[in-house]
User: Which sequence fits this backbone?
């Protein structure tokens, strides 16, 4: 923006001396205007990168604590501060474009997730080593991003120690949530894991209420009744119920609520994009998970299981493993690109809605037997998620 000020008989510009001083509001600065040679003052202009608001220099003799400058006997004090960007953005017509962009992200995210779930379950049916498959998903994503950075397809993020320190708890939550969900899916039907995982908003409310001290309107709490009731009904009527599978999905819910809250905080005000943030998260999670995967399952079991799977399925098995790993990274990457633009709550709701497509497609593809009462429980839970999103709005 270009700005200039006029004092009676003298015009002067902001370009001559701008003294920036950090105040309680980091976007606010003081602008001190010294006496200015007249010829120069009339010509000069100031350019700044961000819009400035200038307060009017109405006081000739300032009595405030703020600094003043004597210009030919007159004291002038004026302040400049950057305009609040949100005011500018809210008033632009880009809102519709942003909504469209988020809608496209959501559609891609859900489609990639369906494909991931199908290949993941195919792999786990033939090769029941969820700790290794979880590790491979992270390794594949990390490798893809390292190659993208090295070849400059994607610009590498500029990170420091503080960034990785802040990322660590997110990575721990991501690792736990990922392994727990994969262990769950190795024990029960994909649809069952996702029905239980549709209870994630309930976990979000409980964590926000009791750990973050946030309170919600009564309708939000009421919407948890169908979510919890529906999940419970679906669980007790599940034909293939397995406690490890159930607990894995529950642990994953809890871990992912923390992951989303910490992620959003970590991404706020950082120059790292959603895509790169998820890439760094994958790398750190891989480092955390690998020793545990080796300890829990180990190379001997993996090698023996691999031979068995190859002999049963043939070379297609390798492609399934590759597909589940690649699609895992892609759907998470797109989901983080969405999280970059939306609140953790909207993210949780989008995630719950995604589960409808996963539940339906996996029931069709894997011919999962479903009793009417079981389907009713799932439908109630999903309806509860919808009510929750309405109550939140
Ligand atoms: C995983 O392996 O991380 C889970 O399958 C992902 O669960 P999500 O549907 O909550 O992303």
Assistant:
């Amino acid at each position: 923006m270009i700005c200039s000020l006029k004092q009676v008989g003298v015009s002067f510009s902001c370009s001559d001396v701008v003294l920036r001083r950090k105040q309680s509001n980091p976007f606010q600065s003081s602008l001190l205007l010294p006496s200015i040679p007249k010829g120069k003052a009339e010509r000069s202009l100031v350019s700044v990168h961000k819009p400035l608001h200038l307060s009017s220099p109405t006081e000739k003799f300032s009595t405030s604590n703020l600094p003043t400058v004597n210009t030919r006997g007159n004291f002038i004090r004026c302040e400049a501060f950057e305009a609040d960007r949100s005011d500018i953005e809210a008033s632009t017509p880009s809102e519709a474009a942003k909504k469209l962009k988020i809608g496209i992200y959501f559609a891609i995210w859900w489609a990639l997730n369906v494909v991931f779930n199908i290949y993941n379950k195919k792999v786990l049916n033939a090769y029941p080593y969820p700790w290794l498959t979880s590790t491979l998903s992270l390794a594949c994503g990390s490798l893809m991003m390292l190659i993208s950075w090295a070849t400059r397809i994607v610009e590498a993020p500029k990170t420091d120690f503080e960034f990785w320190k802040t990322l660590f708890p997110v990575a721990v939550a991501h690792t736990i949530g990922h392994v727990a969900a994969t262990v769950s899916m190795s024990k029960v039907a994909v649809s069952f894991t996702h029905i239980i995982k549709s209870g994630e908003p309930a976990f979000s409310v409980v964590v926000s209420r009791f750990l973050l001290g946030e309170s919600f309107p009564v309708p939000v709490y009421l919407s948890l009744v169908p979510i919890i009731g529906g999940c419970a009904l679906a669980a007790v009527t599940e034909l293939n119920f397995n406690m490890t599978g159930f607990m894995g999905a529950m642990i994953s819910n809890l871990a992912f609520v923390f992951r989303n809250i910490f992620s959003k905080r970590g991404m706020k005000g950082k120059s790292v994009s959603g895509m790169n943030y998820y890439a760094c998260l994958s790398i750190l999670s891989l480092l955390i998970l690998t020793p545990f995967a080796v300890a829990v399952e180990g190379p001997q079991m993996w090698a023996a299981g691999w031979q068995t799977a190859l002999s049963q399925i043939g070379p297609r098995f390798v492609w399934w493993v590759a597909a589940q790993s690649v699609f895992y990274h892609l759907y998470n990457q797109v989901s983080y690109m969405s999280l970059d633009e939306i609140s953790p709550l909207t993210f949780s709701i989008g995630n719950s809605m995604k589960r409808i497509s996963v539940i339906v497609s996996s029931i069709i593809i894997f011919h999962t037997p479903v009793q009417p009462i079981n389907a009713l429980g799932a439908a109630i839970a999903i309806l509860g998620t919808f009510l929750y999103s309405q109550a939140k709005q």
User: Anything to note?
Assistant: Residues 1-91 have pLDDT under 50 and may be disordered. Strands lie at 2-7, 10-13, 28-31, 46-47, 52-54, 69-71, 74-76, 78-82. The longest strand covers residues 2-7.
